[in-house]
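Q&A FORM
Asked by: J.P.
Topic: structure of Chorismate mutase I

PROVIDED:
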Amino acid sequence: MGNEQLEELRGQLDDVNEKLVELMNERAHLAQEIGRVKSSQGMNRFDPVRERKMLDMIQEKNQGPFETGTLQHLFKQIFKASLELQEDDHRKALLVSRKKHPEDTIVDINGTKLGGGEQHLIAGPCSVESYEQVDAVAKELKAQGLTLMRGGAYKPRTSPYDFQGLGEEGLKILKAISEKYGLSVISEIVTPGDIEKAVEYLDVIQIGARNMQNFELLKAAGSVNKPVLLKRGLSATIEEFINAAEYIHSKGNGNIILCERGIRTYEKATRNTLDISAVPILKQETHLPVFVDVTHSTGRRDLLLPTAKAALAVGADGVMTEVHPDPAVALSDSAQQMDFPQFSEFMNQLELSGLYKSKKTATK
Ligand code: PRE
Ligand code: MN
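REPLIED BY: S.T.
REPLY: Here is the structure written out as tokens.
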């Protein structure tokens, strides 16, 4: 008898649950719709005034047996879930999101295809110091089968008294050497007004970690027809990083390469903490090629090889590292740049690991 009554009551509860599920999803649809309207009007998704009104309504209408505080607590959870749904929808609507564009974006740099399945290396000196220095590095990279060379002309340094780079003169050196060796060159630009000029000299414009949220610079880079390598900010979340890429894409330039370069944590054993899991997350959430800068993330020459292996193993489209003819006298980052024998060993070991396929013969 008692059991029949229990079954009957549970049956009724199941019906109510079913209706609640339907109602919750009806509500979720409305919240999504509201989210879209707010997004199109540039409004904040979180609206505490609106939430307060709804909580007051509960107080006014509640006849028990639930206490008003209990219901308000439950509703607060519903608001939170609705907000998350709106944020999810927003993320999926981004131009750089995989939801919006499921296929991988392949950034073609004079025939070297980044993001197309083959993994590539970008290497070169931290700073462009002289024609002879870049010339020597370019020769070495060429011998190792690389097609992409980096080199800093504008150096945003922690101290204003440190070497600030050769500026436009550095860009000219890069251009001359790129033509001499048939290498593509990547260099950081720090001022929106220099972007137009950079287009003439460079094959890829880099936006550095310190400028990841320099929105005017991002918009300027988004307005030109030149691939952009965007580095993750020192303390930027993955979401902020993706939004920074969206700034570039929103202006029409979809040729973007993301570069994880370590984040600030309490750990002091390395210069920054390489967030290796950011690589598969960025690959899942966006359709852009993802690189890992092993030099600046670790700040340690002895960690370049293991972190490069990790990056390639975890699915990065390539690795970026620094090479200098004589790191001991380099004008910047002397502790972590590789000299030529070290670079050659680095390349050999990467190839031996089976994680990297040498392009030596392909570029002869
Ligand atoms: C909603 C969601 C989040 C806001 O903080 C306030 C309310 C809700 O779930 O009720 C919907 C909504 O976005 C809104 O009414 O503006
Ligand atoms: Mn450097």
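FOLLOW-UP: The chain has two domains: 2-93, 107-352.
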